[in-house]
Predict the 3D structure of the following.
Amino acid sequence: MRGQIISRGERTWLIRVALGREPQTGKRRTFNKTFHGNKKDAQQELTRILRLQDTGNFVEPTRLSVNDYLDRWLESSVKTRVRPRTYDGYVELLGLYIRPTLGSASLSGLTPLDVQAAYTVLTDRGLSARTIRYAHSLLYMALKQAVKWRMLAYNPASGADLPRQAKAELRALSPEQVGQFLDVAKADRLGALFVLAIATGMRPGEYLGLQWPDVDLEKGAVVVRRTLVCQHGGGWQFGEPKTDRGRRTIPLPPSVTRTLVDQRRQQATERLAAGPKYTDHNLVFATATGEPLHERNVVNRHFKPLLRAAGLPDSFRLYDLRHTCATLLLAEGEHPKVVSERLGHASITLTLDTYSHVLPTMQQRAAERLEGVLFGKKSAR
């Protein structure tokens, strides 16, 4: 018999469904569910379960809590395929926004209403729409894997109503602000770092992980082969570029090449001064003893003070130097494809979407050029 209903008292029934035998021991396996109601309703529930079993959609409930499942998911599915920094970010985000409200709940009993209620709690705490959406994407990804592992019949995070997110305003230094900033950065130990960041559009992890063999001072070019990944607790390691197109060669303006020549001389002097305390990792930018620079220290000890010294808002982020490079190039009429390759974007579409605010001026120049080509007139500029 595939299923049966057993009375367990007034309006209480035990629904039992045969699940076959254990592969190793041959012991019979059954699914048992206590049901409250009349016998007709219990029979309908049994029929529903058998129908799910026939269509291959029946999932035996697990006793794991959401916390237990998340631990298993992080260890088995996430840790082996993402960067350490990304993994640490997942652990932190789950601990802050998902586990406090949903962690003690049963994984099998988790409902869409539970998930929606958790997001409401985050909203009431005053968290931004961006943060809530990020927490949702992580929970959705975790529960999607539970469906693949046949631990859930469906994803309870599907269809959740999320707060509307306003598009973040992209910030970049103007040509005048770049001049002000670089003028005061000349006297800073990491002045060459900021020059390279603006001139190449490299990500912070890319220029912090740049090694001297990646720099061709004769041809004036750098090759992006790796990123520096700093871990919680002070550890570090080299990682892969963010995208396949992240591996790229970037030509340098002559002035930037000369700045890197000076940087190498400065580093040689520091190496001699540090003596045996110097650990040579062959990094272009390092501490006075040769160790990798942590992005947070670069920001707090150098970037923010330089912004203030230049009379600029210290609300600019280090990553905004990358945006500055792209914005300046596009505003000067450089082809978006060239800018996309310089930045290491996965596609030119991403470049166009990110820097669409620069395109109106490009369209105006295109119209002026067409005026000259079609009607033989030079625009008055």
